[in-house]
Design goal:
Blueprint: H1 25-38, H2 42-55, H3 77-80, H4 82-94, H5 97-121, H6 144-166, H7 169-190, E1 191-192, E2 197-198, H8 203-211, H9 218-234, H10 243-255, H11 259-266, H12 274-279, H13 312-321, E3 323-324, E4 331-333, E5 346-353, E6 356-364, E7 372-378, E8 384-388, E9 394-397, E10 400-403, E11 415-421, E12 424-429, E13 432-439
Parallel strand pairs: 4-8
Antiparallel strand pairs: 1-2, 3-4, 5-6, 6-7, 7-13, 8-12, 9-10, 9-13, 11-12
Helix pairs in contact: 1-4, 1-13, 2-4, 4-5, 5-6, 6-7, 8-9, 8-10, 10-11, 10-13
Length: 440
């Protein structure tokens, strides 16, 4: 996995025979998180953000590409979302509050532009250009208006988080109230009782609705989740999603406790899948394709080195390895719940963070009685919260018992305590090397 970086801006591809290699905002929005997990690109993105702001119109819109050499002057909302998404990722990975403060008024102008469009046309008719781009043939794109409405609400959520970080309390109140109204409008505009889901009932439509906070009413959440899972099963564990749906389906499934389902999709080897790219008999890939079915398409829009489907790498770090950067707070390491005999039984990651290298390895052997083992190396002067299963009966660091509760003086060096949060055990660690064993 690697970002496609030009001299000044991230480009869509590095395929020499492809006819564009442009700085598309959509590709950057999808992959900035995975790029920052893998590369030291903070200054690079800050420089490009300044170019995006310079390209912003008086009414707040931004173009599809920056510098604009291709695409529309007014970006598809899922392309323009790169603006707040990059700022949010810089805060999460690098603690870059300075850039957030510098860009805040421009980000607010972008959200206000989307608000103007939504007020004019309604969420059900929200403008779009590309939508859920290039789903695998013969699948067609889901509702473009729904995808754009998702981007608008998602950008507002990011603006609220940045306003809270920067202490812009009036905006926190204003946009939180507006978001609550828009969440209800989204549901009323796109929910279809006959489909038990949103829009046309496609995977992307339900994924995006479930990703947004407070859009799906609590009484309907299990219905929509079941519709999504049923559609995945009907397609034998394959995706029908384009680049937007693919970005969000994996973390959503993990948030629903379905990491094994996400892993089964990620490790498919038949079309359409990442494994098909790598192992198909016609043209085994060594880099990420632009199209799920690249060997069967013509030579035009068909790059063999394209980053936009690389968004899955962020999920591998966050939800499979369990690493949450949180540059302004302690790291979080939260190994996923995986079943015995599932597709993945262990994961290992090294994250070179702004605080230093964080190393994580977890393993759950197939024997039901085997303990979950989580090894964490925390860099100097940093802290880490390790989130462990709620059914843990005993937690050890090495051979020393840390749960059930022991006195603070009896805790092993570097272990600052165990708390319970949101139904899980949280082991608070200082810097150093630790090996936690969990007996359930």
């Amino acid at each position: 996995m690697r970002p496609s970086c030009g001299d000044r801006s991230p480009t869509s591809c590095l395929f020499l025979r492809r006819d564009e290699r442009k700085a598309w905002l959509g590709d950057a929005a999808l992959t900035v998180d995975e790029a920052l997990f893998n590369f030291d690109l903070g200054s690079f993105y800050v420089s490009w953000l300044q170019e995006i702001r310079n390209a912003q119109s008086a009414e707040g819109s931004v173009p599809d590409t920056v510098p604009r050499t291709f695409g529309k002057a007014i970006a598809d909302p899922n392309w323009g979302t790169a603006f707040p998404t990059i700022v949010s990722c810089l805060v999460d990975h690098l603690g870059d509050v300075t850039t957030a403060k510098d860009m805040y008024s421009a980000l607010r102008a972008w959200v206000e532009f989307l608000r103007m469009c939504a007020n004019r046309d309604g969420l059900s008719n929200m403008y779009y250009v590309h939508g859920d781009w290039v789903p695998p043939p013969p699948e067609t794109r889901t509702s473009g208006a729904l995808c754009s409405a998702f981007a608008y609400l998602n950008d507002m959520q990011q603006l609220i988080a940045l306003a809270r970080l920067l202490g812009v309390t009036d905006d926190v109140t204003t946009y939180s109230q507006l978001y609550a109204q828009l969440a209800q409008e989204f549901h009323e505009s796109f929910y279809d009782e006959g489909l038990n889901g949103y829009g046309d009932g496609k995977q992307t439509a339900n994924v995006l609705a479930l990703t947004l906070p407070d859009v799906v009413p609590a009484a309907l959440k299990s219905t929509v989740v079941n519709s999504l899972l049923a559609d995945l099963a009907a397609h034998n564990g394959h995706l029908t999603t384009g680049i937007v749906g693919t970005r969000y389906v994996f973390p959503l499934l993990s948030s629903l406790g379905c990491t094994d389902t996400a892993l089964a999709i990620a490790t498919q080897t038949t079309y359409p899948s990442y494994g098909y790219m790598l192992g198909n008999p016609a043209e085994p890939a060594t880099t990420m394709w632009e199209l799920w079915d690249a060997p069967s398409e013509g030579p035009g829009m068909n790059s063999r080195n394209h980053i936009m489907y690389g968004s899955i790498d962020s999920w591998l770090y966050r939800c499979v390895a369990g690493v949450q950067p949180r540059a302004l707070e302690p790291f979080v390491v939260a190994p996923p719940a995986v079943r015995c005999g599932g597709p993945v039984r262990w994961a290992r990651a090294v994250y070179i963070s702004a605080k230093g290298p964080l190393r994580v390895r977890w393993e759950q052997r197939d024997e039901p009685s085997s303990p979950l083992e989580v090894a964490v190396s925390v860099p100097p002067n940093a802290r880490c919260h390790v989130v462990l299963p709620s059914d843990s009966r005993q937690i050890y660091e090495g051979t020393a018992l840390v749960w059930p509760a022991v006195s603070a003086s009896a805790q092993p060096p570097g272990v600052h305590g165990v708390t319970v949060a949101k139904g899980s055990f949280v082991v608070e660690l200082g810097s150093g090397d630790f090996c936690l064993k969990v007996v359930v």
